[in-house]
Amino acid sequence: MTANVVSSALPLQAILVSALLPLVLVALGRVPNWREGASLLAGCLKLWLVVKMLPAVRDGQLLEYVLAEPVAGVPLVLRVDGMGLLFALVASSLWIVTTVYAIGYMRGAKEKSQTRFFVFFAFSLSATLGVAFSGNLLTLYVFYELLSMATYPLVTHHQDANARAGGRKYLTYLLATSVGFVLPAMIFCYVRSGGQMDFAAAGFMAGKVNSTEALVLLLMFTFGFAKAGVMPFHGWLPGAMVAPTPVSALLHAVAVVKVGVFCVLRVFTGVLGVDMLKEFDLGIVVSFIAGFTIIVSSLIALSQDNLKRRLAFSTVGQLSYIILGASMLSPLALKGAMAHIAMHAFGKITLFFCAGAIYVATGKKYISHMTGIGYRMPITMICFLIGTMSVMGLPPTGGLISKWHLLLGAPESGRWWLMLFLAGSTLLNGAYLLPIVYSAFFKSGNYFGPDSERGEPPPACFWPLCLTAVASIVLFFAPNLIFQLASLVV
Amino acid sequence: MDWLTMDLIVARFNYWVYIVLMMIGLYAMIAKNNYMKKLIGMAIFQTAIMLFYVSIGTKKGASIPILDHHGGEHGAGSAHIAGEAALKVGEAAAAFPEAAAAAGTTNPLPHVLMLTAIVVGVATLGVAMAVVQKINDQYGSIEEDEVLKRIKL
Amino acid sequence: MTLAQQAPALILLFPFFGALLTLLIGLYRRSWCWPATVAACAASALAAWSTVVQVAESSNALVTYRMAGWVPPVGIEFRVDALNAGVVFMIAMVSLLVAIFSRTVVINETAGKEHFFYTLFQMLIVGVLGIGLTGDAFNLYVFLEISSLSSYALIAMGRGRAAFSCFNYIMMGTIGASFYLLGVGYLYIKTGSLNMVDISRIMHEQDLFQTSTIHIGFLFILIGVWIKMAFFPLHRWLPNAYTFAPTATSALAAPIMTKVSIYVMIRYMYTVFDPNFVFGMGPRSDVVVWLAVIAMVVGSFYALAKRKLKMMLAYLVIAEVGYMVGGAWLANKTGLTGAIFHIMADGLMTAALFLSAGAIYYKRKSYNVTALKGMFQKMPFTMGAFALAALSMIGIPPTCGFFSKWYLISAGIEAGHYGFVGGLLFSSLVNAILFFRLLEYAYYGEVETPYVAAGKRGKKKGFREKSGRDEAPLSMLVPMWSASLGLVLLGFYSGEVIAFISRYVAEVQF
User: Fold this and answer.
1) pLDDT at site C131
2) Are B128 and C170 in contact (CB < 8 Å)?
3) Cβ contacts of C161 on chain B, cutoff 8 Å
4) Which of A12, A304, C95, C177 is most buried, judging by how many CB atoms fall within 10 Å of its CB?
5) Are chains B and A in touch, 3+ Cβ pairs below 8 Å?
6) Quick one: B132 and B87 in the same domain?
7) What percent of chain A has pLDDT over 70?
8) Cβ pair A146:C421 closer than 8 A
9) Is residue B47 part of a domain?
10) pLDDT in tens, C145-157
């Protein structure tokens, strides 16, 4: 692929939309309807700006915007390629949906400090897009850290003892790993590469380190980007479930965690380079770590009674699918990994939306209390089923497509037995998600049964989850755009 | 032994004097319990440095640094320029023709510098004494252990 | 001569005459002291900016100003190059911000003595700016004492243990300044000059670097400035002195006094002396870097153990001194660049932190960390500025704290000194723990914010949130936020600043 770099302010505008939105939100803080209206408007504007970049990027162009040059030779630069745009599309389209959902949820659950909530939500989205559009490692790190900071007030929104504990865990894991691992690794790269950090197709560190150094760097980056939730640095994610559900849905199923795997993907493709990793045969190390995470997290998920925590452990496992795909170092698996960012996003956000909707409508958080809830809110639970199928990778949902590529990638990389991790985990996914759906529809419990009055959640919560469930199915039939963007990078 | 006494002690007695004075001052500042005694130590400490400066300006056989407008009996570029002062003279001679006469006088610059240092020393002492007075008002004592005891309470 | 050419002197003259004027005005009307001080500081900052521009535009990055036209080495010379232009500008800006900030706290804490306070306040600024500007070794001593004397008096105006800790500070400060004076004396013995550049020229021409007199002189100067900058293990005087000083004093002294001493150290190491000499004496430079590492670690840990907000910040100042000394002694260009950049970055960070801590004290009347409880609700803007400064202290991009750390860490890797790299990372993490603990206090506190549905009033539907705000006055918020936003700006423009600094660094021969 020939790099055809075009200077464009579009990436900056897309980021600025949500970075400047908080000013409006604070000004309108006293008038919630206008405030939420502004949020929605900004969401649409942002999506439109991202979509506007689509034609150019499909033509193989790279949109670039230089912000500043704080370090000699390494500017803060935004550069949009296929992978970045794919991620940005997912994040910004789901932001609109989540905003609608958040309005319903926050009002329905009578949450306090809603202005602050929307302000930091907008900041988080800006940081997410910043990561997606980063043109070099420094820019990536800058936005990565900003995202940690912007999401902290969201995680701890309730400001009680639980939130404090969760928030502490959140920051401890994320900061300790990013400052302790990524920062030194990054500066080592800077010193070693002679002041050059732009993501390059072959990796800018290719040929500049020996195999031991490459291994250490690889591990430092894989563990350092702890947002990817690779074990043993996954503990923050279940802890972060104390946040209000819209946060868990968008940030801890889509934006934040995907930023983590996105960073790891960038390290594989742009920093160390697939070819060099192949040459030193280092992919297998990460494959084992990811495989371990996939299986263990699924096993832990089995024992969780809190629905959001179960979903969180499921997310930990699914994230490692993407890492596993990257570590196979085969084009098919890489494509599958990128596509999985999008596919899993739609499936998992549906599940979280359902969990939140149940909480808003009935106040129930625990799975054991949800027996028979299918009688009360059947459509919500059908959407939950669709989400489950997508996460497991069953047709006709988008999850199948990406999983299929990951599975095919395993033999292509010469290690067919990596398929076992994927197959085993699919079974486990079914084991911890399907019983929820089954007992919801075919059993009656203490709270709900066949005689329960039918009542779906408030419309602002209800329609978004239907939309994402439908989208999961649509992606099964129309995954072209996603793969087109993904194959631009591979 | 003879060499040692001559070269290390007698020839450099000014340094020994200032070091001994400085150590006395430093000892008082650190070891004395009474704040006023500490201040006296501080004054000795500063004075020692002043003596050091004044002593480095002197030369063997030189007179006081006052310009004599009536006669040139000191003579320019005279033979008895002592030690390192020669350097300074050469420098200054370029800038001020009269300074050539400086060869036969002690170097006045360190003295002038010490005038400033004396002013600084006085000011420091003044401020410090005011602070001690404040301590006395606050804790009713200028003994350090008493004050510390009262702070801990 | 145009006014712009006089700028280096004007930087100093404005606060100097401002000090005298303030004293006189204050006798007539106390309330005019503050505007006079702010005006003097603003004019000084303007002159500093003009000097920076002149330095940037001059071909050799150098602006000199000869006092009363006397030619150096006889006359005293102000010498502004790419090293001290930025430092002086930072000092002038911080002084201006603190001066604006001080309006209400000075009336509050030193009622009836405002005119004395502001006179000393400006004399302190004169002293520190003078240290930054002068090119004369003895003149530097005089300015050192001017700044020290005014800071002694300013600190003694505080409450509680102020007088007691001030006395210790006087003792240590005098020893430090005297050592410096002694060192200058030794240099004078050998070179017969007091002008820094001239001393350096003579030492090079006559190859005096091997003489023990020069060695001893260098050591005395070094120990002197180490005491002044509170470098480990000579740091004991600092925390108490800064904690119990009046708010405006600690906000002024903490950012500028230690930083200017570090500038003096760098000036002596690289302009007066020569890296070959400084680093060519066996394993000494390594020892200093390890001391710096200990300073970082110990400073951070002590800060973590303290219960008073200002005491924590004071210990962080000690830790930060370790960053800069370590960077300067790593013996490579990146480290020197990082150290110089960190002087500016840290000055601004410390100012932002002390200013917001001052605003909290102003409202809560307590330095205890528990006074922070619920402050995010009570004083959201103050806490916002505090949080931003805290992020910079931890080293979160895009604040300038990240970029200075970047240079320091890459210098450590270049030099192969992984102890220093580890120390920096460790201290960043301890800072993170420290500041997030503080922010947690402020965030989870027990301040009531009743949730009121506006619909109850029967007017319109929807939600309204009521908050019990008790924010600091605008005269505090403006400087506080200027400092905090300055951190982000300095981060974004760090490229330009670094390019400016490297005009000095490039000429250093390692």
Assistant:
1) 92
2) yes
3) 151
4) C95
5) no
6) no
7) 98
8) no
9) yes
10) 999 999 999 888 8
